[in-house]
Amino acid sequence: MQEMIGLAVFDVEQGKRVGKVLDVLLGSDWSITGIQLENRSLFHSSIKAVLWDDIVAYGEDAVMIRNQQAVCKWEAEHIQNTFLSGPGKLKDLSVLTEDGIRIGYVTDVYFEHELGNTITGIEISDGFFTDLMEGRKVLPFVPEMTRGENAIMVPRSSEQLLEKP
Protein backbone atom coordinates (compact mmCIF):
# COMPACT_ATOMS: atom_id res chain seq x y z
CA MET A 1 0.00 0.00 0.00
CA GLN A 2 2.90 2.35 0.70
CA GLU A 3 3.79 2.19 -2.98
CA MET A 4 0.47 3.89 -3.84
CA ILE A 5 1.08 6.84 -1.50
CA GLY A 6 2.43 9.78 -3.49
CA LEU A 7 1.46 8.44 -6.93
CA ALA A 8 0.01 10.94 -9.40
CA VAL A 9 -3.69 10.45 -10.20
CA PHE A 10 -4.86 10.96 -13.80
CA ASP A 11 -8.30 10.99 -15.37
CA VAL A 12 -8.37 8.56 -18.32
CA GLU A 13 -10.93 10.52 -20.37
CA GLN A 14 -8.90 13.74 -20.66
CA GLY A 15 -5.45 12.65 -19.53
CA LYS A 16 -5.48 15.38 -16.90
CA ARG A 17 -3.66 15.10 -13.59
CA VAL A 18 -6.22 15.52 -10.78
CA GLY A 19 -3.87 15.19 -7.81
CA LYS A 20 -1.78 12.67 -5.98
CA VAL A 21 -2.54 9.91 -3.50
CA LEU A 22 -2.28 11.12 0.09
CA ASP A 23 -3.73 8.06 1.84
CA VAL A 24 -5.73 4.88 1.28
CA LEU A 25 -9.24 4.53 2.73
CA LEU A 26 -10.20 1.19 4.26
CA GLY A 27 -13.49 -0.46 5.14
CA SER A 28 -14.25 -2.34 8.33
CA ASP A 29 -14.26 -5.56 6.25
CA TRP A 30 -10.51 -5.23 5.47
CA SER A 31 -11.12 -3.94 1.96
CA ILE A 32 -9.86 -0.83 0.22
CA THR A 33 -12.78 1.56 -0.28
CA GLY A 34 -10.89 4.36 -2.04
CA ILE A 35 -7.99 6.76 -2.08
CA GLN A 36 -7.62 10.16 -0.49
CA LEU A 37 -6.16 12.88 -2.67
CA GLU A 38 -4.09 15.81 -1.54
CA ASN A 39 -6.27 18.77 -0.58
CA ARG A 40 -4.76 22.20 -1.11
CA SER A 41 -7.18 23.98 1.24
CA LEU A 42 -5.78 24.72 4.69
CA PHE A 43 -9.14 24.98 6.43
CA HIS A 44 -11.28 22.05 5.43
CA SER A 45 -13.54 19.55 7.14
CA SER A 46 -13.79 17.42 4.02
CA ILE A 47 -11.32 15.43 1.98
CA LYS A 48 -11.05 14.75 -1.75
CA ALA A 49 -11.49 11.06 -2.42
CA VAL A 50 -11.95 8.57 -5.25
CA LEU A 51 -13.93 5.37 -4.64
CA TRP A 52 -12.15 2.12 -5.47
CA ASP A 53 -14.75 1.30 -8.15
CA ASP A 54 -13.73 4.47 -10.03
CA ILE A 55 -10.08 3.43 -10.22
CA VAL A 56 -9.46 1.97 -13.67
CA ALA A 57 -5.86 0.89 -13.11
CA TYR A 58 -2.69 1.73 -11.29
CA GLY A 59 0.95 1.09 -11.94
CA GLU A 60 4.28 2.07 -10.51
CA ASP A 61 3.97 5.64 -11.83
CA ALA A 62 0.28 6.61 -11.62
CA VAL A 63 -3.27 5.79 -10.58
CA MET A 64 -5.81 6.04 -13.40
CA ILE A 65 -9.42 7.02 -12.64
CA ARG A 66 -12.48 7.05 -14.94
CA ASN A 67 -12.93 10.81 -15.13
CA GLN A 68 -12.78 13.97 -13.04
CA GLN A 69 -16.34 13.37 -11.82
CA ALA A 70 -14.96 10.40 -9.85
CA VAL A 71 -13.32 12.85 -7.44
CA CYS A 72 -15.76 13.54 -4.63
CA LYS A 73 -15.74 15.25 -1.26
CA TRP A 74 -16.16 13.24 1.94
CA GLU A 75 -16.59 14.64 5.40
CA ALA A 76 -13.39 13.82 7.27
CA GLU A 77 -15.23 12.81 10.45
CA HIS A 78 -16.99 9.98 8.56
CA ILE A 79 -13.72 8.32 7.53
CA GLN A 80 -13.24 5.36 9.87
CA ASN A 81 -10.09 3.61 8.72
CA THR A 82 -7.09 4.76 6.74
CA PHE A 83 -3.64 3.40 6.15
CA LEU A 84 -1.39 6.36 6.92
CA SER A 85 -3.06 9.21 8.79
CA GLY A 86 -5.93 10.25 11.00
CA PRO A 87 -7.38 8.71 14.13
CA GLY A 88 -8.29 5.44 12.39
CA LYS A 89 -4.90 4.72 10.80
CA LEU A 90 -3.49 1.19 10.60
CA LYS A 91 0.17 2.12 10.20
CA ASP A 92 2.10 1.77 13.47
CA LEU A 93 -0.75 -0.04 15.29
CA SER A 94 0.41 -2.85 17.57
CA VAL A 95 -0.49 -6.38 16.53
CA LEU A 96 -1.47 -8.49 19.54
CA THR A 97 -2.54 -12.10 19.84
CA GLU A 98 -5.69 -12.94 21.79
CA ASP A 99 -3.49 -14.27 24.59
CA GLY A 100 -1.61 -10.98 24.97
CA ILE A 101 1.58 -11.48 22.95
CA ARG A 102 2.71 -8.45 20.92
CA ILE A 103 4.10 -9.72 17.63
CA GLY A 104 5.02 -6.27 16.31
CA TYR A 105 3.43 -3.25 14.71
CA VAL A 106 2.03 -2.55 11.24
CA THR A 107 4.48 -1.06 8.73
CA ASP A 108 2.59 -1.81 5.50
CA VAL A 109 -0.53 -3.50 4.19
CA TYR A 110 -0.49 -5.84 1.20
CA PHE A 111 -3.12 -6.46 -1.41
CA GLU A 112 -3.06 -8.00 -4.88
CA HIS A 113 -4.73 -5.73 -7.41
CA GLU A 114 -5.45 -8.78 -9.56
CA LEU A 115 -7.62 -10.05 -6.70
CA GLY A 116 -9.47 -6.77 -6.27
CA ASN A 117 -9.45 -4.52 -3.25
CA THR A 118 -9.10 -7.09 -0.46
CA ILE A 119 -6.16 -6.93 1.91
CA THR A 120 -4.07 -10.12 1.74
CA GLY A 121 -1.62 -9.47 4.57
CA ILE A 122 0.04 -6.99 6.87
CA GLU A 123 3.76 -6.31 7.09
CA ILE A 124 4.96 -6.37 10.67
CA SER A 125 8.06 -4.91 12.29
CA ASP A 126 9.37 -5.97 15.66
CA GLY A 127 11.68 -2.97 15.99
CA PHE A 128 14.64 -1.44 14.20
CA PHE A 129 17.31 -3.92 15.33
CA THR A 130 15.13 -6.97 14.74
CA ASP A 131 14.34 -5.63 11.25
CA LEU A 132 18.08 -5.30 10.56
CA MET A 133 18.91 -8.76 11.90
CA GLU A 134 15.91 -10.78 10.73
CA GLY A 135 13.96 -8.53 8.37
CA ARG A 136 10.30 -7.64 8.52
CA LYS A 137 7.64 -10.31 8.34
CA VAL A 138 4.22 -10.60 6.73
CA LEU A 139 1.17 -11.92 8.51
CA PRO A 140 -1.25 -13.33 5.92
CA PHE A 141 -4.79 -12.06 6.36
CA VAL A 142 -7.12 -14.30 8.37
CA PRO A 143 -10.82 -13.52 8.82
CA GLU A 144 -10.42 -13.54 12.62
CA MET A 145 -8.27 -10.36 12.52
CA THR A 146 -10.03 -7.42 14.09
CA ARG A 147 -9.05 -3.79 14.25
CA GLY A 148 -9.49 -2.37 17.71
CA GLU A 149 -9.06 1.22 18.81
CA ASN A 150 -5.40 0.78 19.77
CA ALA A 151 -4.35 -2.56 18.29
CA ILE A 152 -5.05 -5.20 15.70
CA MET A 153 -6.15 -8.38 17.44
CA VAL A 154 -5.17 -11.68 15.81
CA PRO A 155 -5.72 -15.36 16.73
CA ARG A 156 -3.36 -17.09 19.18
CA SER A 157 -1.60 -19.10 16.46
CA SER A 158 -0.75 -16.04 14.33
CA GLU A 159 2.89 -15.91 15.37
CA GLN A 160 3.45 -19.24 13.57
CA LEU A 161 1.92 -17.79 10.37
CA LEU A 162 4.56 -15.03 10.00
CA GLU A 163 6.56 -15.30 6.78
CA LYS A 164 9.26 -13.36 4.93
CA PRO A 165 7.96 -10.90 2.30
Automatic annotation (TrEMBL):
Domain of life: Bacteria
Residue ranges of domain PRC-barrel in the record: 3-67, 89-160
SUPFAM superfamilies: PRC-barrel domain (SSF50346)
Stored Gene3D superfamilies: PRC-barrel domain (2.30.30.240)
Protein name: PRC-barrel domain protein
